[in-house]
Amino acid sequence: MRAGNVLMLIGVGVVVVGALVRFAPGLFAWFGNLPGDIDIRGESSRVFIPITSMIVVSVVLTVVVNLVGSILRNR
User: Fold this and answer.
1) Largest CB tally within 10 Å, which of 7, 13, 28, 31?
2) How far is 20 from 7, CA to CA, in rounded Å?
3) Phi, psi torsion values for 46, nearest 5 degrees
4) Is the distance from CB of 47 to CB of 40 less than 8 angstroms?
């Protein structure tokens, strides 16, 4: 598969995820509210560190990239 086709597939994936976030926000209500996400609120400030959410995103992206890589390698 050529690089242009891969870039188009990535673009379609980004558009699909963007549409899901825009039109079905309830699907991602869990994101940022997992145990391990740090949320410190003061009177005039807020610090949010989504540690657990970023670990979940990292695992999902690792699996997807490895699957795509193995599919492209076998061609």
Assistant:
1) 31
2) 20
3) -145, 135
4) yes
The pair of structure tokens assigned to 58 is 């990292």
**Spatial distance between the Cα atoms of 47 and 3, rounded to a whole number of angstroms:** 39
pTM here is: 0.68
Please give the radius of gyration of the chain, using alpha carbons only, rounded to the nearest integer: 17
Model confidence pLDDT, tens digit, residues 10-55 = 899 899 989 998 999 888 888 888 999 999 999 999 999 999 999 9
In residues, how long is the chain? 75
Query: Which one-letter amino acid corresponds to residue 64?
Result: V
More confident residue, 75 or 57: 57
